[in-house]
Design brief:
The protein is an alpha+beta fold. The protein folds into 2 domains: 81 residues; 104 residues, Arc Repressor Mutant, subunit A, CATH 1.10.10. It is 43% helix and 19% strand. The chain is built from 7 helices and 7 strands, in the order E-E-H-E-H-E-H-H-E-H-H-E-E-H. A 4-stranded antiparallel beta sheet has the order 3-1-2-4, with helices on both faces. A 3-stranded antiparallel beta sheet has the order 5-7-6. It is globular. The two termini are 18 Å apart. The relative contact order is 0.11. The C terminus is likely disordered.
Length: 194
């Protein structure tokens, strides 16, 4: 569970994002490097997920390279990006949420503990945070195609429908009542996560 800062040189633009895998910051850098004319480097990583990412986005709001786009995750460099740490209670909150989500998942899908299902478990955790993050940014349901694209980068095409079904069954996501093509993160009353 890592929040990363990737700097582009010479413009000194900084991408602030998160990933579940603590070793994936370099992988993210390589993804962003594709098609980017500037040299990208991982400048910093810190423990956390989307709560911590949101903390940094708010902290550096005035430095967004596109201030009109609140969901834009590129910022102008500032030395404080190297030193400001998130509040400890924020990291604890994320750890508790993640642990609760995984306990709930294990109860609903006991076979997910088996070694061959470890990747599926990771994908469901990433999906949970992805849908939550999009919902918090847009305050609207996440389109099926957006989730499909997300999952297509993580599971074989023939497993996407099954992954949708499991995610819905273990209360990670739910269809909106008015539009079955839009998805929401499940509310606290359903899974106990705030």
């Amino acid at each position: 569970m890592t929040v990363y800062f990737i700097i582009a040189r010479p413009s000194l633009s900084v991408k602030i994002g998160w990933t579940l895998n603590s070793n994936a910051a370099e992988k993210k850098r390589k993804e962003f490097q594709t098609g980017n004319h500037e040299e990208l480097q991982v400048m910093r990583t810190t423990r956390g997920l989307w709560h911590v990412e949101a903390f940094y986005h708010k902290e550096f709001q005035e430095l967004r390279t596109c201030p009109d786009l609140n969901k834009h995750e590129w910022f102008r460099f500032c030395p404080n990006m190297l030193t400001i740490d998130p509040p400890v209670n924020l990291i604890e909150k994320e750890n508790n949420e993640f642990s609760m989500r995984m306990k709930h998942l294990m109860k609903q899908e006991p076979d997910i503990l088996q070694e061959e299902n470890a990747k599926k478990r990771d994908v469901l955790g990433e999906l949970h945070y992805y849908v939550n993050g999009l919902y918090l940014k847009t305050k609207s349901g996440v389109p099926t195609m957006e989730i499909w694209k997300f999952l297509s980068q993580r599971v074989p095409t023939n497993q996407i429908d099954k992954t949708f079904t499991i995610a819905e069954r273990v209360n990670i996501i739910a269809r909106t009542p008015r539009n079955p093509e839009l998805w929401l993160p499940r509310p606290k009353s359903v899974h106990g996560i705030s």
